[in-house]
Amino acid sequence: MARNRRRIAGLTEALEEYFAGQLNKQREFDGKFCPGEDECADPESSERGPLSRYPNETIEYVCGGCSLRTTKPGNSPAHLVCAINSTIEIADLPENATFAYPDALDIWGWAGLRALSRARNSDLKKSSKQKPKEAPPPGPMLVRKPGEKAAVQTFDWSRITATPND
Fold first, then answer.
1. Would 122 be classed as within a structural domain?
2. Is residue 95 part of a domain?
3. Of 87, 100, 101, 162, which one's alpha carbon is 20 to 30 angstroms from that of 130?
């Protein structure tokens, strides 16, 4: 029994590493992923990509030069494919879906959900640690050309009167 637990713990860690990597890639590519060879090659698809523009080239050649190749479906580790797919299917259920522990899911489903949850929490911590962009100072932004001295704007306060003009 202890041997089986080590395997499941290893599975959970491997899935967590995979999901964390996918979340990092999602942030790196602004949420874009490879749509897969069929969608990429279809000139009528909304997800068409380089394969549709170079139909006479080999898939390996075209995909090799694509920045999204690391997100290509099928690049998942072969020994994790079933666990990844079942975890994604379970995760796609409505947010308020509940599961009676421990009988609702098999051990692979629980391991996958645990790994996905850990990866999401870790990703959330990473994204919250990133320094937010500084807001521009209030007021109008003055743009100057390179080498041009900044103009100092002055305001004539003597024009302001305490009483309205008649």
1. yes
2. yes
3. 87
- pTM comes to 0.63
Number of compact structural domains in the chain: 1
**Domain span at 73:** 2-33+68-129
Q: Are 32 and 46 in contact (CB under 8 A)?
A: no
Per-residue pLDDT of the chain (166 residues; tens, 9 = 90+): 444 444 455 889 999 999 999 998 888 888 888 888 888 888 888 888 888 888 888 888 888 888 888 888 888 888 999 999 899 899 888 878 888 888 888 888 889 999 999 999 998 888 777 655 555 555 444 444 555 554 444 444 455 445 555 4
Q: How crowded is residue 66: how many other Cβ atoms within 10 Å of its Cβ?
A: 15
For 4, the token pair is 């089986």
Asked, for residue 6, whether it belongs to a domain, the answer is yes
**Which of 45, 73, 44 lies closest to 59 in space, CA to CA?**
73
Rounded to 5 degrees, φ, ψ at 141 are -95, 130
Residue 110 lies in a domain: yes
